Amino acid sequence: MIKAEIVIDSPKWKTKIRNPNLYLKKKIKKLSSIKSLKKKNFQFTLLLTNKTIIKKLNKKFRKKNKETDVLSFPIKSHFNNNYKGDIAICYEIINLRSKKTNFNIEFDKMWIHGFLHLLGYNHVKLKDYKRMLRKEQDILKRLN
Length: 144
Prior knowledge:
alpha/beta, 49% helix, 6 helices, Collagenase (Catalytic Domain)
């Protein structure tokens, strides 16, 4: 089973998703039913934040002094192999992108992208990017 702790530090999120905890609980339940993830026990924390906080996190941990859409912080622990790490998502960037599509779609893309990073996927090389993109698209189809 996949479990997520949701931390909301920007009230703007609730203007687009009335109950982010319930929304994600439903999505994670679908995610947990995917064959490759079905028997896994994963836990992660999802921070729903704003551009000020994500910029500070990006500067501190990636040495990039700018806002970004999503940050992932994978954790390898000898004490708790189930805890995969933390994801932070920026409201303003998701909201801006959603002008062309839909807020929930853009949000789902970002937390799935972050989740895959926690599982070890990356997009440094083109082949890795394509592999990760295929996995993201497959998961997104199943979530809707």
